[in-house]
Specification:
Order of helices and strands: EHEEEHEHEH
Number of helices: 4
CATH architecture: 3-Layer(aba) Sandwich
Structural class: alpha/beta
Number of domains: 1
CATH superfamily: P-loop containing nucleotide triphosphate hydrolases
Largest sheet: 6 strands, mixed
Helix content: 25-40%
CATH topology: Rossmann fold
Bound molecules: guanosine-5'-triphosphate, magnesium ion
CATH class: Alpha Beta
Length: 173
């Protein structure tokens, strides 16, 4: 059976750890230095319930409320992973704006989404509570979890990417 193609996009404010999550997920290591992304695609091939998948993760440049939302992110994407850092209030607040921009651009009322609060290893610098994360995720009809690209807690991320792969069929988008 040929591999099924799936594509997800990582969206969020700059420096929240989008690339770090992708690198941890695909390559299994953490990069300490900060290298701002322009745009990058990671590919991971894996088997799930006897089916091969080729998952493309589009790692985008950090966005803020003034960024123009690139129109190609509204096409050909099976699901979106919105990332903020639990240590940055502004990165959290921007998610809602980005989400609404995405709905506007795509003309949809809902998109398949996951909300991720990254950097949860930096608990002492927490600026966003878990409850606030959950509330935003409810508003977005998204799954939610906190994680840390640094401490390799990407297993939850793996789980949700698997959900995207198994259940999101292009005809539903
Ligand atoms: N402590 C901690 N640092 C992290 C974590 N994830 C990323 N970082 C650090 O945060 C900085 C930014 O990480 P990136 O992954 O480059 O962030 P990004 O969202 O891809 O940034 P842009 O490409 O500019 O949008 C880097 O110095 C990372 O090492 C994490 O979970 N915990
Ligand atoms: Mg990046």
């Amino acid at each position: 059976m040929p591999a099924k193609q799936r594509k997800v996009a990582l969206l969020g404010f700059r420096s929240v750890g989008k690339s770090s999550l992708a690198i941890q997920f695909v390559e299994g290591h953490f990069v300490d230095n900060y290298d701002p992304t322009i745009e990058n695609t990671f590919v991971k091939v894996f088997k799930l319930k006897g089916q091969d998948y080729e998952l493309r993760i589009v790692d985008t440049a950090g966005q803020d409320e003034f960024s123009l939302f690139p129109s190609h992110y509204t096409m050909d994407i099976h699901g979106y992973i919105f990332v903020y850092a639990i240590t940055s209030r502004s990165s959290f607040e921007i998610v809602r704006t980005l989400y609404e921009k995405l709905l506007d651009m795509s003309g949809k009322q809902q998109v398949p989404a996951i909300l991720v609060g990254n950097k949860c290893d930096l608990l002492r610098d927490r600026a966003v509570s878990i409850e606030e994360g959950k509330q935003l995720a409810d508003y977005m009809h998204a799954a939610f979890f906190e994680t840390s690209a640094r401490s390799r807690e990407v297993s939850t991320l793996k789980k949700f990417v698997c959900i995207f792969c198994l259940y999101l069929q292009p005809q539903f988008l």
